[in-house]
Amino acid sequence: DCIYQIATGIKGLAEGDVRIATYSSIASNWLPEVIKDFKKDYPSINITLMEGVKSEIIAHLEERKADIAFVSRLDKTNYDWIHLDDDPMIAVLPRSHPLAGHRSYPIAECVNEDMIIPSLGYDEDLTIMFKRNNITPTIQYRTVECFAAMAMIEKDLGMSIMNELITRNYKCDVVKIPLSPPEKIELGVAVPSFESASPAAKKFFEYAVRHLKRI
What we know:
By secondary structure, the protein is α/β, with parallel strands linked by helices. The chain has helices at 2-10, 24-29, 31-41, 54-62, 124-132, 146-154, 199-214; strands at 16-22, 45-51, 68-72, 80-93, 105-106, 114-117, 138-142, 160-163, 175-180, 184-191. Helix 3 (31-41) packs across helix 7 (199-214).
C-alpha cells in the first residue's frame, strides 16, 4: 500500500488513503469543512476518521494505524507536531448553580463539586489541569460522550470542566463560563515523520494546516 502511494505520488496522481486520529471535538467542528474542500481537489484520496481520547490517538500513531493525528500538544516525542490553535477550558454548570451568574468559575471550587467527567474519566488534559492546580475532584459520574455529560448537567446532576470546542454543537440548557485562572489546551496536528509520510498523507497535512490557520 505504501509503495503504491509513493508510485502514484511520483506519477503526480492524487490517490491513496489517509487515516486520521482525532478528538471528537475536532472531528465535528474543524474537519468536516477541511475534508469537504480537500475532496474537491483530491477526490481519489480516501479519508478515514478514528475518534478517541489522547491516549488512544497516540496509540494509533505509534502502531501506525493513523497517518495523521489532530491532538493536544505532544511533548518529548519524536512526532512532527504543528500548533494550530488554543482551545480554552470552561466550566459547564446547571442553571441552578450558585456560580452560574458569575463571569468566571474559580478552579479551586472543583473540590466542592459533584463532577461529571466525559471520556470515562480518562481525559488526560483535564487530569493534568487538576494536578497542576492541586485538585482532587469528586467524580460522581463518568460518561463516554460529552453530550451525555451536558445532558446530565442540564438535569442538575453535577457540573464539568470541558474544552470549549467540544461544547459548540450541543444544544443543552446549561451555563458555560471561563475558568479562573484561565486554562487552555494547545491543539495541533502531528505525524510520526513528515519526511516518511505517504504522498496522500502529506497532501492532507499541508492542506489542513493551511486551511485551519486561515480559520
